[in-house]
Amino acid sequence: MGQIRDRMAADLALRGLSSATRAAYLRYAQKFVAFHKRSPHELGVEHVRTWVLHLLQVKGRNPNTVNVCIAALRFLFETTLQRPDVMVSVRLVRTRSRQPDVPSGSQVAAILAHARNAKDRAMFMLLYGAGLRVSEMLALVAGDIDSQRMVIHVRDTKNRHDRIVPLPLSALEALRTYWRESRPKGKWLFGSPRRPAEGRALSRVAVHKALLKAVERAGLTLHVYPHLLRHAFATHLLEIGTDLRTVQILLGHRSLQSTARYTHLSEARRATLRSPLDVLHTEEGKRLG
After folding, report:
1. CA distance linking residue 232 with residue 289, whole number of Å
2. How many Å apart are CA 116 and CA 158, to the nearest integer?
3. Residue 243 has what pLDDT?
4. Residue 227 is among the residues annotated as catalytic for this protein
5. Catalytic residue among 15, 253, 254, 264
6. Is 230 annotated in the active site?
7. Annotated catalytic, 262?
8. In contact, 214 and 120? CB cutoff 8 Å
9. Active-site residue (options: 114, 133, 231, 236)
């Protein structure tokens, strides 16, 4: 895509979209152009329709993924190429709302116990114990972990609203073990071992593979992915009696019916709140299954 890619990258940055969204839009726009092997200026609505059908029928892509691809092309044509007419008739693919198969507390405990190393265990504990998105976890730097106040500063969020979440004691201990054993180099708390000199963060794919390995080692038959630990965090919080409003704040979800994104947990509430990670091996934790 050359100059068009550079211009699209600049347009995405000017729009203020998250780094993950910018990367995804650029990736899908490049795949679209590569599929047709023509300049974006020569592509139109029929080319978009052909590629979308290819993704759905040939590649078997999930409708949610395809809708992100469509959003990327909408940005490319409407904003970067100034050709809004191309996407006028293109609609999002209808999706089915499915509830994730959330692992039980004992299954989460097994996954944590069978992590390959201290790094993987620390990552899994943050995903489950603090309900972080994988992108939020991979964007963490050492300074985001506040062991004095026992909180995590989550800055690179999906909706661009920073939040502060409790840091479970067991997650802090796992992080300290990881730090002692690995002494991570570079900016990121979880850097890529293949490119330490470049200071790159670990990839989502690497986190997913590490989680699959842990599930396999634990002898579980679960369809897992990093975001499932976030689902488990929210589900288990509700199961141990945490109110829905608190869960909403911890997850960083926006609501049309409230001003949740402008509120924060009080210091007193944050100090008394327990993560489900901290009750896994207690009597109360048995309620998680």
Report:
1. 12
2. 29
3. 78
4. yes
5. 253
6. yes
7. yes
8. yes
9. 133
Find the range with the poorest average confidence among 11-20, 69-78, 197-206, 222-231: 197-206
Any catalytic annotation for residue 253? yes
- Of these residues, 158, 204, 213, 217, which one is catalytic? 158
Per-residue pLDDT of 272-285, as tens digits, reads 677 888 888 888 88
| 101 Ramachandran zone, left/alpha/beta (phi>0; psi -120 to 50) | beta
CB 151 within 8 A of CB 258: no
User: Residue 115: left if φ>0, alpha if ψ -120 to 50, beta else—which one?
Assistant: beta
- Give which of 19, 17, 13, 33 is closest to 73, Cα–Cα: 33
74, 119, 163, 230: the catalytic one is 230
What is the reported pLDDT for 262? 25
Please give the single-letter amino acid code of residue 206.
A
What percent of the chain stands above pLDDT 90?
60
Of 156, 250, 253, 146, give the one whose Cα is nearest residue 201. 156
Q: Token digits for 165?
A: 């979440």
Domains of the chain from N-terminus onward: 3-87 (1.10.150.130), 105-288 (1.10.443.10)
> Higher pLDDT residue, 23 or 96?
23
How far is 72 from 85, CA to CA, in rounded Å?
A: 15
Q: Specify the amino acid at residue 87.
A: M
Q: What is the predicted pLDDT for the residue at 255?
A: 57
Mean pLDDT of 254-264: 38
State the catalytic residue, choosing from 61, 200, 208, 227. 227
Q: What is the pTM of this model?
A: 0.71
